[in-house]
Design goal:
- This protein has 411 residues and is mainly beta.
- It contains 2 helices and 25 strands.
- The protein has one domain: AttH-like domain (AttH-like fold).
- The strands form 2 sheets. Strands 2, 3, 4, 5, 6, 7, 8, 9, 10, 11, 12, 13, 14 and 25 form a 14-stranded mixed β-sheet that branches. Strands 1, 15, 16, 17, 18, 19, 20, 21, 22, 23 and 24 form an 11-stranded mixed β-sheet that branches.
- A hairpin with a 2-residue loop joins strand 19 and strand 20.
- The longest helix is centred in the N-terminal third of the chain and has 15 residues.
Length: 411
C-alpha cells in the first residue's frame, strides 16, 4: 500500500513540479493541497471572456492543469443530530494538450489532444479522490488515486459531460436522469471505504450560479484566476454509514466546479473558503487568498457573493469584507483558526463561525482542514450552517505533538 501511495505521489509531483520527473525521482513529502494550485507552464490559462456552456462544462477540461468536482453537505438525522459529508474528485494534468487559450482566443480547446495510449496507465491525467464524514463524536477522511484513460471500455477514473459522471472506482458523482437540469440534475453521490460511506441523492429547482464575472473568478490583483460555478441550492437525502451503522439523513448540499492552470500566484500561500447556508434561505460564499508574510502584496485577495433565495447573485465589495480570527486551535502540528467573526458592513451583517468539531483535518497526502461549521448571529440572515476549507497553514514540527487533535484517516 505504501508503495502504491508513493507511486501516486510521484505522479502528482510531476503534475505540479516546475521540473520534469525522471527515472529514479523521489516522490514529494506530504504537503498541502494548495501546492496543487501553483503554476506550471504550457497549459491553457483561465481568462475573462469565456462563455460557459452546459452540459459541456460539467465535463473535464484536459488542457487546464487542475480542476475539481467538490461536494459538501450539512445533514441531520430524524432526531436532529447533525452530520457532515464531503466528496471531491481532483483531475491533475501531467502535460498540457496542444490547444492553449490566449487573450485573443479565450475559448480555445485542445485541437490536437494527446492520443489515447494502448496502456491506460500512460494517460496524462491523474485523478485524486477525497471523501470525509463528520458526526457528533468524530471525523474520518479518506483518499484514493488513479490514472485516467480508457482501456477496452474500462476507465478506473474519469469524468464526462453527457451523461454526467465523475468517478474513481466506486466513489462517484453521476446523473440519475441524463439530460435534465443542465445535463446533470438529479445527482447521486456515493463512496464506500470499509465500514464508512454514504449514498446521497441531490436535486434542486434552482439554476447553477456563475461565480465572479460570468464564471471567471479572479484570484489575484494581477488578473489571474479560474473558471468557477456553483450549485448551492441542492437538497440532499440518503444515508451515511458510520462504523458500520447506516443512518438515514437529509439536509442541504453545495457543489462547486472549478478549473484553472494557476489558482495561486507565487506571493500567495493558501486560502480560507466559506460556503454558508443561511436560515434566511440565502447562500453566502466568501474566500480569502492569503498572502505570504514576505510577499510584496499589501493585503489578502478577498471575494464574496450573497445569493438570494430566488438565485440572484450579488457580488460584495471585497474591501468591506472583514475576517477576524478570534481563537486558534492546534491540529496535526499546525495552528489554525478555530473561531471567526465575519463583518459585512455593506449589507449590515455580522456573524460568528465555529467548527462543529475542531478535528476535521483531512490527513491525506496533500493535507488541509475541511469541515462542517455553525454560523451564529442576531437574525436569520446571520445564522445557519455551512462548510469551511483552510489550506496553506504550515506544519510546526517543533511543537509538542501530544497537544495535537488527531484525525482518523485511511489511505
Amino acid at each position: 500500500m505504501k508503495a502504491a501511495i508513493a507511486g501516486a505521489l510521484l505522479l502528482l509531483s510531476c503534475a505540479w513540479s516546475v521540473t520534469a520527473c525522471s527515472p529514479g525521482s523521489e516522490p514529494p513529502t506530504t504537503g498541502d493541497v494548495a501546492l496543487l494550485a501553483q503554476a506550471k507552464e504550457g497549459f491553457s490559462q483561465a481568462l475573462p471572456g469565456y462563455v460557459m456552456s452546459f452540459p459541456r462544462d460539467h465535463g473535464p477540461h484536459p488542457d487546464y492543469r487542475i480542476e475539481w468536482w467538490y461536494l459538501t453537505a450539512n445533514l441531520q438525522d430524524a432526531s436532529g443530530e447533525r452530520y457532515g459529508a464531503q466528496w471531491t474528485l481532483f483531475r491533475i494534468a501531467m502535460q498540457p494538450a496542444s490547444g492553449r487559450a490566449t487573450a485573443n482566443d479565450p475559448q480555445a480547446i485542445p485541437r490536437q489532444p494527446i492520443p489515447q495510449q494502448a496502456n491506460p496507465w500512460l494517460s496524462q491525467q491523474v485523478y485524486m479522490a477525497h471523501a470525509a464524514l463528520t458526526w457528533p463524536q468524530g471525523h474520518a477522511g479518506f483518499q484514493r488515486y488513479a490514472r485516467g484513460g480508457d482501456h477496452a471500455g474500462v476507465a478506473q477514473a474519469g469524468a464526462q459531460a453527457e451523461p454526467f459522471a465523475a468517478w474513481l472506482d466506486d466513489w462517484s458523482l453521476r446523473s440519475t436522469v441524463p439530460g435534465a437540469g443542465n445535463g446533470w440534475l438529479p445527482l447521486q453521490a456515493a463512496f464506500r471505504q470499509g465500514d464508512m460511506g454514504f449514498q446521497l441523492r441531490l436535486d434542486s429547482d434552482m439554476d447553477l450560479v456563475l461565480q465572479g464575472e460570468k464564471g471567471f473568478s479572479q484570484k489575484h490583483t494581477s488578473g489571474s484566476g479560474s473558471y468557477y460555478y456553483s450549485q448551492p441550492f441542492l437538497r440532499a437525502e440518503g444515508s451515511l454509514t458510520i462504523n458500520g451503522q447506516e443512518i438515514p439523513v437529509s439536509g442541504q448540499a453545495w457543489l462547486d466546479r472549478e478549473w484553472s492552470s494557476q489558482f495561486l500566484q507565487p506571493g500567495q500561500v493558501g486560502w480560507d473558503w466559506f460556503a454558508l447556508h443561511l436560515d434566511s434561505g440565502e447562500k453566502l460564499m466568501l474566500f480569502r487568498l492569503r498572502k505570504k508574510t514576505n510577499s510584496d502584496s499589501n493585503e489578502d485577495f478577498q471575494y464574496g457573493v450573497l445569493i438570494s433565495p430566488a438565485g440572484q447573485a450579488r457580488r460584495l465589495d471585497s474591501q468591506q469584507i472583514q475576517f477576524e480570527v478570534l481563537e486558534m486551535m492546534r491540529v496535526q502540528g499546525r495552528t489554525l483558526p478555530a473561531q471567526w467573526r465575519i463583518k459585512l458592513p455593506e449589507i449590515d451583517r455580522e456573524m460568528m463561525i465555529t467548527p462543529v468539531l475542531q478535528d476535521q483535518w483531512m490527513d491525506v497526502d496533500f493535507a488541509y482542514w475541511e469541515g462542517a461549521i455553525e454560523v451564529a448571529g442576531s437574525n436569520a440572515g446571520t445564522s445557519g450552517r455551512g462548510y469551511l476549507e483552510m489550506t496553506g497553514y504550515p506544519a510546526e514540527p517543533d511543537q509538542a505533538e501530544a497537544h495535537d487533535i488527531t484525525q482518523r484517516s485511511e489511505k
